[in-house]
Backbone:
């Protein structure tokens, strides 16, 4: 990767368990690969620690495997098949397991052990495939080590500028407009008509549409549930007050003001609604948080837990209004009837 690789990505997708050096430096992990110590280091997956028992304080052995028959080309002046990605030129693995012949090996210190990273595959699960990330200069040195004097690779081993790029990340400044983005994409397509461009706005538009649908669906379902709960609470309070009409008559006969009788049932309704709301909130948050953790583990993505504060405030407010109306109407009618 280039030194500014992590500067063009989202930091929340970078999860590291260990880092060898540079914690006190104002530099990203991709920039540290281009330091003197970083040129002998590489990013490795956290599963390497569990699989081989190494850490950032140890030297790892990289097995360099190269199969020259894979890139035979009829034209001697061409390096490789242009449809092949640069990641296929050299297979850099952290173990020598497998049937492919190991031609060379070298010692590389883990700069960092990562669980995941944007644009690169890392994992903490032993047995899963993952990438090993080095700088361009380190990649060139490793490539020279295994290919030797092979003329098909001579240009790449002589100059870093001749190493093909599989992917280029472009981070826009916050002040750029949509028209300027479209103009930049058009210019890139003019220069490279066969290039594949991924525009985040296409994904963002779909996500925003889906989020709007979910929001309105949630509001609609919430409104229906609140209406059903209101009528259920009205029926429950009306039945409760009807069954206690004699107690209400006794309290009024003893001189208790009618408004106090009404307030008694309003407070009872408030306590009932508040307790049920807290119980439902606790259960919902527990289930939602558990499902979020499960999704995060299954997808290996840092999925944040979102707490819908507007929904909660609206539901509590609507619940208190429902509690007041459901208790005031039957209680006030019973006191006047008595």
Residues:
């Amino acid at each position: 990767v280039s030194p500014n690789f992590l500067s063009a990505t989202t930091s929340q997708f970078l999860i590291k368990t260990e880092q060898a050096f540079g914690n006190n430096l104002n530099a990203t992990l991709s920039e540290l690969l281009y330091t003197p110590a970083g040129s002998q280091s590489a990013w490795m997956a956290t599963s390497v620690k569990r699989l081989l028992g190494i850490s950032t304080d140890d030297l790892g052995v990289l097995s360099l495997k190269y199969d020259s028959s894979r890139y035979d080309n009829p034209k001697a002046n061409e390096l490789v098949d242009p449809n092949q990605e640069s990641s296929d030129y050299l297979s850099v693995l952290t173990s020598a397991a497998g049937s492919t012949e190991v031609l060379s090996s070298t010692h590389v210190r883990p700069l960092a052990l990562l669980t995941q990273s944007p644009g690169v595959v890392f994992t903490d699960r032993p047995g899963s495939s993952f990438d090993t990330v080095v700088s361009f200069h380190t990649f060139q040195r490793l490539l020279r080590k295994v290919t030797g004097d092979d003329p098909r690779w001579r240009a790449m081993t002589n100059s870093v500028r001749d190493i093909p790029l599989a992917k280029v990340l472009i981070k826009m400044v916050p002040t750029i407009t949509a028209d300027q983005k479209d103009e930049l994409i058009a210019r890139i397509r003019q220069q490279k008509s066969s290039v594949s461009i991924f525009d985040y706005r296409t994904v963002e538009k779909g996500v925003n549409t889906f989020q709007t649908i979910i929001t309105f669906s949630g509001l609609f379902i919430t409104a229906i549930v609140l209406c059903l709960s209101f009528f259920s609470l009205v029926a429950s309070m009306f039945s409760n007050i009807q069954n206690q009409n004699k107690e209400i008559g006794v309290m009024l006969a003893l001189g208790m003001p009618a408004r106090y009788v009404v307030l008694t049932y309003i407070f009872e309704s408030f306590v009932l609604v508040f307790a049920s709301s807290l119980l439902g909130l606790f259960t919902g948050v527990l289930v939602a948080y558990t499902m979020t953790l499960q999704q995060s583990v299954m997808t290996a993505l840092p999925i944040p837990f979102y707490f819908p504060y507007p929904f909660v405030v609206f539901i509590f407010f609507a619940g208190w209004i429902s509690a007041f109306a459901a208790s005031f109407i039957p209680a006030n009618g019973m006191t006047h009837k008595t």
Notes: The two ends are 84 Å apart (CA to CA). The chain is about 50% helix and 10% strand. The CA atoms of residues 156 and 163 lie 5 Å apart.
